[in-house]
Design brief:
globular; 7 helices; Immunoglobulin-like; 2 domains; Rossmann fold; SAM-dependent_MTases_sf; about 35% strand; five-stranded mixed β-sheet
Length: about 300
């Protein structure tokens, strides 16, 4: 089986720009507002001086000393707590996405994922036969769910955090869509029930975190549970007309790990691709932001 090893980054995007990276930070523009945030992969030097970062940024996320994932936003210029940006591609996808400053440095959007939104939109539009049933696991604020819905899929969106599911609903409504099925649950528990019920999906999207918690405190550790999860996903994925998109962000993960995981759990894989997602800053430095494996039967 031939595979293409890819290194992918979103195309031109009016509402997003990675301005600079380095010193374990990144400087980004989302619409009209510029943010500086921690970035553990940016181990090189910044291209711009710190003074220029401070001059440009509307807000800076300062980490807590004892917990690098938590911290607080320091407002450097006036900007709203919530705002909205647009994403369009040449195939007709048009998303409106709501952003907000959170205590975990995130703002409700991972820009490198635009590559995956494009893939989902094109795959669903070209899907043979009736509209596919698509399951989005660890779906976060739902840009992938909204992209799949915009392409015509019957979408089930699952996340363990009620607040981000509500956020996803707002993204759907802002994009002028409706009809996504919302589920707040532990992903592994849910797909085990789906397998017992005999429910089948034509498309599955997985973007699991390195660590996480289910709604009842269930522990998720990527290295320990992703193999079991893919094994069960293989039971609920249509064996004939199908697609799967796996995305993982872990500092220690190569896309070859994704290859081995998927190929050991799924049969009759066609049109497989794997590789790395990245964003390029305005000085040409490429920031790696996760690995992916995807396939589709058509």
């Amino acid at each position: 089986m031939e595979e293409r090893i890819l290194s992918l980054s979103p195309g031109a995007w009016n509402d997003y720009e990675l301005i600079d990276t380095g010193g374990f930070e990144k400087l980004e523009r989302f619409g009209d507002f510029i943010l500086s945030r921690p970035e553990p992969q940016a181990i090189w030097d910044k291209s711009l001086p710190d003074s220029e970062w401070k001059k440009q940024a509307h807000a800076h996320f300062a980490k807590e000393k004892n917990n690098p994932e938590k911290g607080s936003w320091q407002q450097l210029k006036k900007m709203p707590h919530n705002w909205q940006i647009n994403y369009k591609n040449q195939q007709g996808l048009d998303l409106k996405l709501n952003l907000a400053q959170t205590s975990f440095k995130h703002i409700g959007l991972f820009p490198e994922q635009a590559v995956n939104w494009d893939y989902l939109y094109e795959s669903i539009q070209s899907f043979p036969g009736e509209k596919p049933k698509v399951l989005n696991l660890f779906a976060y604020t739902g840009a992938a769910s909204v992209a799949a819905k915009a392409a015509g899929a019957d979408v089930t969106h699952l996340d363990s955090v009620k607040q981000v599911v509500t956020w996803s609903r707002h993204n759907m409504e802002a994009s002028g869509l409706d009809g996504i099925r919302w589920i707040v649950d532990d992903a592994l528990k849910f797909i085990k029930r789906e397998a017992r019920r005999g429910n089948i999906y034509q498309g599955i999207i997985l973007d699991p975190p390195a660590y996480g918690r289910g709604p009842d405190g269930e522990k998720w550790i990527l290295e320990e549970q992703i193999n079991e999860m893919l094994k069960i996903c293989s039971e609920i994925l249509d064996p004939v007309n199908n697609f799967l998109l796996l995305n993982m962000y872990s500092l220690s993960f190569s896309s070859l790990i994704a290859v081995n995981l998927v190929q050991s759990n799924f049969k009759n894989i066609k049109n497989a691709e794997h590789g790395e997602l990245f964003l390029k800053d305005s000085f040409g430095k490429r920031l790696p932001l996760g690995v992916f494996y995807r396939f589709r039967s058509f």
